[in-house]
Amino acid sequence: MSKAKPKSMEQLLEEALVPKDEQPYEVPGNWVWVKFGVVAKLFNGYAFKSTDYSDEGIPIIRISDLNGMETTPETAVRVPRELYNEKFLVRKGDLLIAMSGATTGKIGIYNSDEIA
């Protein structure tokens, strides 16, 4: 059984770049178009039931908590720790983007050391 040879930096860059004929418009000379999935990972969130909300536990960041700037758990609702799921963990510095309904595109950068 042979191991796959690691890709070179040039090969990785070639895979990441958007072909010239697919670029929607020109960008400044020191920028390049790249495929989103190469530079970022996109994960769906999880909709907890409002009956799960609690005064204590893990903060839940909802679309209403996104304000286009920093997002913190200060006004977030919470759910009991036993409902915690590593798959949906939000960490400091994560960019949160609403992906449904009239709020699609609403963003916030999570700015707390507390997991949510």
From TrEMBL:
InterPro entries cross-referenced by the UniProt entry: Restrct_endonuc_typeI_TRD (IPR000055), Restrct_endonuc_typeI_TRD_sf (IPR044946)
GO terms assigned for molecular function: endonuclease activity; hydrolase activity
Keyword Hydrolase: yes
Residue ranges of every copy of the Type I restriction modification DNA specificity domain listed in the record: 28-112
Domain of life: Bacteria
EC number: 3.1.21.-
EC category: hydrolase
Pfam family name, one: Methylase_S
UniProtKB keywords: DNA-binding, Endonuclease, Hydrolase, Nuclease, Restriction system
The family this protein is said to belong to: Belongs to the type-I restriction system S methylase family.
Protein name per the record: Restriction endonuclease subunit S
Organism from which the protein derives: Geobacillus jurassicus
